[in-house]
Amino acid sequence: MTQALLVMDVQPVVLSRYPDDTYLPRLADAIAAARTAGLPVIYVVVGFRPGYQEVSKTNKMFGALAVAKPPAPPEATAIHPAVAPEKDDIIITKRRVSAFTGSDLDLILRAGAITHLTLTGCATSGVVLSTLREAADRDLTLTVLSDACLDNDPEVHQILTEKIFPTQATVTTIATWKQSL
């Protein structure tokens, strides 16, 4: 079984809504461990075409973009430099909350014979939850690094990582996961 580390929505534009000075160093530690162990590191960013053609005005999360059509700043899909990809890392662009929706993630996983995903990202109640549910429905083996996920609501993060996610994934910490590599 081939495992990959999924690093999701760590764009400065996203992270600015989730202030936590300790998050990026923790995530960088997990990324370094994955690279040392020879695991593929796959980054997932949310992004849209100019004019936001992929976004319906009825979409509660992204619909305002379809109406206003503001120009996306060039750095909108940039990954935070503290956890920047290296040359062999894969970058996936998604069009919705889940890493699978509107992206070629499934194709990349199948081509690489990747059957085990270790999930990290911002936010626990957004991309991590949506991706976990879809990945579980695709029969992938899943691990969630609870301290490499971030959410504005600590209670929601705790409920998801302690009560919801364990029904479909192994939930652990970066330190424990590193020992298993």
UniProtKB/TrEMBL annotation:
Domain Isochorismatase-like: 4-175
Keywords, alphabetical: Hydrolase
Pfam families assigned: Isochorismatase (PF00857)
Keyword Hydrolase among UniProt keywords: yes
InterPro entries in alphabetical order: Isochorismatase-like_dom, Isochorismatase-like_hydrls, Isochorismatase-like_sf
Taxonomy, superkingdom: Bacteria
GO molecular function: hydrolase activity
Protein name: Isochorismatase
Organism: Winogradskya consettensis
